[in-house]
Each structure stands twice: as C-alpha cells, then as structure tokens.
Fold this protein.
Amino acid sequence: MLDFTKILQIIQKYNSFLITTHLNPDADAIGSELALHDYLRILGKKVSVINADATPYTLEFLDRDRIIETYDNKKHREKINSFDVLFALDFNQLKRIGVMENVFRQSNALKICIDHHEEPENFTEYLFVDISYASTGEIIFDLLKSDNSFQLDLPIAEAIYAAIITDTGSFRFERTSPKTHLTAAELISAGVNPKTIYEKIYDQGSLNRLKLLASALKSINCNSDQSICYMRITLDDLRQNNCGEADLEGFVNYCLSVKGTKIGMLFQELEDTVKVSLRSSGNFPVNKIANQFNGGGHFNAAGIRIKGRNLDEAIEMILSAAQSYLNKEEE
Ligand SMILES: [Mn+2]
C-alpha cells in the first residue's frame, strides 16, 4: 500500500517541482505527468515538465498548453539543479531517461519515484512503486484523490484516462482490475469521452504507419509449435515508409493474436542497436528473459536493447533464450 499522505506532505512542504518520464514516452507517461503537473499548479506550486524525448504527435492533444519541454543540455542543466523536488514518473531505473540520467542523478533535490514497474533501482529514498497497478496514471489518480480538497477536472480526467487505456491495452491486459474500471467510470463521469480519446490516440495514425505495419506483419515468423511469434523492422522499413520509432507502438501485440502463442516479440534495427519488445499472455514472465540481457519491464511486457549484434544475430540469441525458458516451464 502506497503512503499517499507522505507524498502529499512533501508536496505541501516544497515549492518547485520538476516532473520527468522515460524515453519514447507513451500515454501513461505523458498523462501521468500532465495530471500531476495540473494538480501542483492548482496548489500554486512552480512546476516544469522536461522529458528527454519529445511527445509523440498522437499525444500532443493532451498537452493543451504546450507545457512539456524537451531536454536541452544548455538550457536545462542548471535549471534542473534549482528545483526542490524531482518527480520520476512511470520508470524506476535512471538509464530510462537517457541524456537526463546524469544531471538527474547528480541533483541534490529531493527525488520521488512513482511507478508500477518491477525491480526498481534504488536512486531515491522515496520510492513509491506498486506493481499491482495497471498504470502509473491510476497511482496518480489515487494520490490526487487522497487529497480531500482535490476536485477532478476534465484535463486531468482525460490525461489519466489516456494513461489507463494505453497501459491496459484498452482494458484487456492482465492487471486490469475492477478498480481500474471504477476509476475509468469516475473519469467518464467527469466528462471524458472514451470514443474521442481512443480515436485521438489510436486512429490518427499516418498512412505511412499502416504501410509500416504491413511490412511488420509480412515479416512474422514462428517457432515450430507457434508458442513464440516474432516480427522484424529494419532501418530501411522505417526509411521507406518515412516513419520513426514511435510509429511502432502496439505492433508487437499482433504476435499474440496467433492461437497458442505465448510470447510475442518485435525486433527493431536501430543505428548500432537492436531493440527488442517482448510481450506475453498469461503466466509467462518476459521480464525474466529481458533481465538476462540487461533489459527490464513487467511480467507481460518487457524490452531489451542489444548493442554490437546485427538483426539476425539478435533474433537468434533472444529466440533461443525464450525457447529454453519455455522448455524449462514444460518440464
Ligand atoms: Mn506505465
């Protein structure tokens, strides 16, 4: 059980706050940041939101007042040292904030991590991590609700609703709970239109993105019993379709739509790295495979970055690790 009173006390005590989140931010990251930002502003605090990566265009609608800044060493290095409190949302290992890692680590400000991922790095004494939550957005919602004077408004409700639908795969992933639905009900009562939010996030994609999905689907391959299903995206695929990394969001889930598939993977070629997204359905912990390769994540969703191997080598390496996990499970 998270001690929300403790976080509220800290918020009350200090004046200036920085909020940040992980690379390649999704709606849980951006929604959680904006909800917390708005709440702190309502309390009259000074707040900045600075991320290492830019907000994906599909999520810009959430940032109505364009308050989210993208980290710039010249502009922000000193500034980050001037905040009283740094909030780390939706990640719990500092390597997840890329270029901001060192300046965040070296800051003397009070650091607070609010997150729902497993195996947190101990970079602060204030680690509010609860893996039973389906999204960080729901933790922020409970935090705000624990302040009796808090009144839910539409921008905050939309930000949290966006966080929830993304991290629950629209209410279908493992950790979707009765409470997730009750929270959603409250957000809808506050004026959120589920159809509008869904369309803004998922149905505003480019034609190029759909063509990229076609390449990914064409590349699908399985192991002999179809328990592992994987797709690949090369740098050429991205270039030819004029797409970026953010356009791949959600692709890997198609692997799990095959009957009998327990693990789905997307292998993405980057300049000098292969990025692997792993998903599982049911009780197979893909974060255990990720940990083996210095990656991380959740039980059913994890990621790995492999340096110094080409796409084929990376595929072979991760496939065989996944296969031996499945074999062990069957014994
Ligand atoms: Mn999340």
